Amino acid sequence: MNSIEWNGQALILLDQTKLPVSEEYIHCTDWRQVAEAIKMLRVRGAPAIGVAAGYALVLAAREAAAQGDRDEQFTAFFEFANTLKATRPTAINLAWAVERVCTLVRTCIENNGNDGADNHAVYLADCLDRIEAEAIAINEEDLALNRAMAKAGARIFEGRRGLRILTHCNAGALATAGIGTALGVIRELHANGQLSMVYADETRPLLQGARLTTFELHQDGIPVTLLTDNMAAYAMQQGLIDAVIVGADRITTEGDVANKIGTYGVAVLAKAHGIPFYVAAPYSTFDFTLASGKDIPIEIRDSREVTHFQGCQTAPDGVPVLNPAFDVTPHEYVSAIITEAGVLYPDYTKSIARLHKEVQER
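Above: the chain sequence. Below: its structure as tokens.
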């Protein structure tokens, strides 16, 4: 399933708010369209948001390069980048991708646009090809790391058959540029003949599990059963779940995990029933500036997402609503973190530090 496509002039996004009823695509020729798509969850999932942001900055750079003098061009570009980064505060991949491209632009300025070979004032136009190449690289890297993560995660279950996996929200092809993080592992287990059933939490209030995860798996012929969120405890109590695999939007250096609201509850239930709880996420999801999950900013979304669904009112007028988009699972509830570089186990402070060091030394 290809939910993100760059054709050199426009970013084409599958509008996930329309699924599973219809498959509609948005042709974004302006970075503001991409920003709106991210904000409104037309494109969602931490890795996919990062990929979309990279291409949005290509569009932003082209617009800024057409403005007045040199200083105005760069000022406009960095303002556009900051606006894009602010669309969703919790998913670190968005900020990571924006900063990666902005760092490239700063380097382009410092090196006179051509690695120091030309001694001339650099205009944003001198950086456009490199910005586009960086966005494409972010996309291609996501494709590769999804495959690597899938194989690393499947090794946890080596020699086992008939696995029944519970997942929450959507961490599949719709949430990435590739086969997915959590669903990438699940796809690998299915390909290996090890999977019996996937149980997908509905994931209130926007039903990403019901609308997106079951849509993906059903299309791929992978056995899936839908549960409402408050049925997960029953399924575990009845012995229907062998493991939980979820994605992540941000992971701290201590291994605390921010993911879609409801994930923490699933982790607590898994702990109570002696079921392993795994998180699948790429290196770009780690926030090396934060140790504790208490410091992760949690996006609070519009109350109408809770009081209404697809235009139908489900709560009284004027009732107060608490609508956090994410919660944080403390590291002590996490059995392992699956990355493209392998599987991390506790002590996470040490294993995450080793991962960081290995990546920086490459």
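Residues 137 and 156 are 29 Å apart (CA to CA).
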